[in-house]
Amino acid sequence: MVMGKKLYHGAAWYPELWDQSVIEQDIVLMKQAGMNVVRIGEFAWSNMEPTEGNIDLGFFVQMVNLLHQNGIDTVMCTPTPTPPIWFTHGHPERMYVNEQLQVMGHGSRQHACTNHPYFREKAAIITEHIARAIGRLPGLIGWQIDNEFKAHVSECMCGTCLVQWHEWLEARYETVEKLNEAWGTQIWSEYYHSFEQVPQPGPVPFLHNSSLSTMYQLFSMEKIAEFSDEQAAMIRQFSDAPITHNSSVAFSVDNERLFRELDFASFDTYATYDHPANYLLNNDLWRNFKRGRDYWIMETSPSHAASLASYAKPHPNGYLKAEAVAAYALGAEAFCYWLWRQQRAGCEQPHGSVISTWGKPTVGFPNVLEVEQARKEIEATIVETLPTQAEVAMTYSDRSKAFLKTEPHQKLNHRGLVTSFYERILHLGLHRDIVPEGAELTGYKLLFTPFVPYISSDLMKRASAFVAEGGVWVVGPLSGGRTEEHTMHTNAALGELEHLAGVETIYTFPMDGSGSIGSAFGVAAPLSLWSSVFEPKEAVAVGTIESGLTPGLSFITERAYGKGKIVMLGSMPTGEEGEQLLNKLILRYADDAGVTLRTDVTAGTIVAPRHGDGREVWVVVNMDGAGGSVTLPRDGVDPITGTVYRKGQLTLGRYEHKLIQFTAR
C-alpha cells in the first residue's frame, strides 16, 4: 500500500445497455451513494465490434471521460468472456466442449474455447484497440482481464485443446515412454505408443486413470493463465494502470499461477451472511497472492445473489457494513458490488443491485449508504496503516483442488475441507494468513498444511527450513499420500514426508464407520476420512487410536526437528468431541510455537490488527449479528472519535465495529 491512498467503493456498471437519460441519472445517483469507482466493458464485445473488424470504442472513451468529470474512477475490462455472434455462428470448432462432448452454443458466456487460435487472435485485436483508446485516459485506474475465468466451465474437450494437450504432454514428459512409466498405464491396457493416442478425460464407462484426469486439469489451468498473460502483455504496451482478474476459490483455475503475472489480486464473493467464515477466508487468502499490494473485492452483492434459476437469502441490515469494514481492515483497497443498476433482461434479472431497473433504490441501498459512511470514517486510519502479518498460516492449494476433484472419496472438495479447518482457527482468535503453496514462510511461527494430497519437493524444502528455524508444521489429514503425477508412493505411504516426520505409516484406509476412536490432549473422539496410521520412529506419539481396526497405533505424532517440530495429523477427529480435540490441537501448537498475535475474541467476531508509523490498531468487527466481545490488553483510543477504551473487556453489538489505537507500550 502507498500511504495516503484512498479506499474505493464501487460497482459494476453496464452503460451500453441503457440510453443517455439513464446514464445521466446513474451518474447522479452514484455520486449520491458515494461511489468513487466503477468497472465497465466486461461483456460488451458486440457493442465494441458489432461486425467482424468493425471496432469502435468511442462510446467507452466517452464513458470513462464522463465518469472522470464526475469524480468517479474506472476499472476497464476486456470483453473476452462473451464473443459476439459473428465469432460463434456457424463455427462449432471455436466453441467450448464439455466432458460429455456437448458443444456449447452462442449466448450465456464462456461459450468459446479460450485456447482456439482464432479466439486468441480476435481477443488480442479487441484488447489492443481498447488499450490504445483508453489506456492513457485520466480516471482510468486499473484493468480487469475477462470475467471470472472458468466459473461456468472447466476443462474444454474440443479438438484444439486435444492438440495442445498432446503438445503440453510432450513438453512435460519428453517421451511417451516416460509418460507411461509415470502414469502406470499398463493398468487396464491403457499403454500409449504416441502422445497423439493420449485421450482427453471425456466419456468412459467407469473412471479415468487418476494421472490423466488430474494432469488434464492442470493443463487447463495453465492454458487459461497463459491467456491471461497474453492479455496483460497487450495492455501493458499502451497503459501503465495495474491489471487484475476477478477470480474465486470456486473456479477451475490455479489462482497462484494466474496472479503471478498480474499486478494485484481481486476476487468475487457471494457468501451468505450465515457463513461469514466463507467470506473471511477469501480476504485472508487474497491478501497473500500479491504480497505488499492491497487486494480488491471486485464483486459482492449489496443484498442477495440471484438468477433465473435460483436466489440466495438477502443480507440482514447491518451485515454489508460489517463485510466492508472487515475487508478494508484485512487489506482490501476496494469493496465493489455486482451490480449498480439491475438488469432489465438476460439471465440475471433478479440479482441484487444498488439501483433497480426503474431507477429507484433497492432493498440493499440503505446498507450501501452505511458502507459509504463507514468507509469515510475509517479511511484515514486504514490508509495510514498496514495489515499486520499473522504468525499462523494455513496452506491453500488449487492444485489440491484438482487432485480432490479426481479423487473425491465421499464427495470431498478442497475448498470445503479447507474452509472448515480455517473456521476453527478463526474462532479461536488466532490472527491468520491463508497462503498459496509457493508462499515464503518468513515471519510465521505455525503452519498448517491439511488436505494437500501432493506435497511438492519445493514446499517440503521451504517447510522443513521453516521448522529448522523454530517453526511448528502441522501436516494432514489427507496430505502427502500422492505423487506429483497423482499416483501412490512406492517407497512409503507418504513418501519422503514420512522420513522428515520421523514416522512409518503402517496403514492407510477410510476410518468412517470403522469404530475407530482416537485419544489426544485428554479428549477421545471418533476418527473419520481417509486416514494414515503411524508408528513413531524418530517421532513421539501424541494421539493414540484406542479402538477400531488399529488400536495402539498413532494418528498424531510430533518430531523435534532443528529448533522446531513437525506434527503429523493422520486422521480427522469428528463430532462434538472431535471439535474439542482439534481445538486443543490448534491451541497446543500455537502455544508451542510461541504465537502471540491472538485474542480471546468470541466466535463470530474478528480482530484485524494493523500497524504503521509506530501505531498499533485493532479493527474489531462483529460478523455474525449476535454481538461479541474481546479483552483489550491495554488502554486504547478510537482514532476517529477520541473515545477512550480501558484495558479489559470490550463489548460489541450486532454487526458493530470499533477501531482501537493502543497507547505506547
From TrEMBL:
Keywords: Glycosidase, Hydrolase, Metal-binding, Zinc
Beta-galactosidase trimerisation domain segment(s): 390-595
A Pfam family reported for this protein in Swiss-Prot or TrEMBL: Glyco_hydro_42M
Boundaries of every Glycoside hydrolase family 42 N-terminal domain copy: 13-377
Gene Ontology MF terms in the entry: beta-galactosidase activity
E.C. designation(s): 3.2.1.23
UniProt keyword annotation of Transferase present: no
Gene3D superfamilies for this protein: 3.40.50.880, Glycosidases
Top-rank EC class of the record's enzyme: hydrolase
Residues annotated as domain Beta-galactosidase C-terminal: 604-658
Reactions that this protein is recorded to catalyse: Hydrolysis of terminal non-reducing beta-D-galactose residues in beta-D-galactosides
Recorded family membership: Belongs to the glycosyl hydrolase 42 family.
Official protein name in the record: Beta-galactosidase
Species of the source: Paenibacillus allorhizoplanae
